[in-house]
Amino acid sequence: MAGKNEGKKPWLFEYKGTIFPGCAPKENLDAMPDFHVRDDDVVVVGFPKAGNHWCAEIVNNVMQAAGKTSETTMDREAPGRILEFDDKVGDEMWTIHRFLEDKPLLRLICTHLHREFAPRGIACPTGNTKIISVMRNPKDTAVSYYHFATRLGYNENDWETFADDFLNGRWEYGDFYRHVLGWWQMRDNPHFLFLKYEDMKKNTKEAVEKIATFLEAELKEDQVASIVGACTFRNMKVVYDKATEVSCRSVIARKGVIGDWKSMFTDQQNAAFDAKYKENLEGTGLSFDFE
């Protein structure tokens, strides 16, 4: 598999059986297990294009409304953009996890890492560390990821090839089910809150309230309403569109809907994704809405 990906997609590489993008190099991944997680850290984990940025925006707004100061991985030069703490920036080996190590304030950390690659303090948290796992149905995730990669210019494949790569774990961050089920193992751990993109979309107010309760943030009704308004897709897209980075302006905020997979999937692809879904999730207690 590594050879295939290196030939067709030179920006991808294999690390311990999982495909990663070049912006998360081996040196960073090697450093992740020993990254020091603090007692007051808040972490958002999720497969790419599962709603990570949206969830992090809500978390950041909740923390600010509750008077909890935070040092986030938000890029000040590109409002609305979140740098994953396992990344490097540009051609330099300046990494977000190195940047965060010396930050004195409460930190909001975001990552796409599988649980097996995450820092020990996130994979098996102690103290008061809080982790929010956001998940999205695999069909919409795949479609969103395809457009994301294509618009950024690092996907050279057509939809048919991309969908097959995604389904078989040959794209960035590897197998979707390996990722979600790894974190799903922690569903009964009080350090974790699990949210689904589809539920957040259908009832954003309830999602804000769940996050606030989980973070022990006491908010008034008008504060909740304000956060819900600020974190609608339309309002967040306005922020993203003002960013100078192409990735923020034209990629992160696209449609923000449930069921967009219907505009892309063939009957054959739909059947293949359904079979993989049943094979991996049957009996796990984890399920998704697709419309």
Automatic annotation (TrEMBL):
Xref: PANTHER family: SULFOTRANSFERASE SULT (PTHR11783)
**InterPro entries listed in its UniProt record:** P-loop_NTPase (IPR027417), Sulfotransferase_dom (IPR000863)
Q: Which positions fall inside the Sulfotransferase domain? A: 39-285
GO function term, MF aspect, one: sulfotransferase activity
EC code: 2.8.2.-
Q: Which gene encodes it?
A: SULT1B1
Keywords in alphabetical order, please.
Transferase
What's the name of the protein? Sulfotransferase
| SUPFAM superfamilies reported in the protein's UniProt record | P-loop containing nucleoside triphosphate hydrolases
Name the family the entry cites: Belongs to the sulfotransferase 1 family.
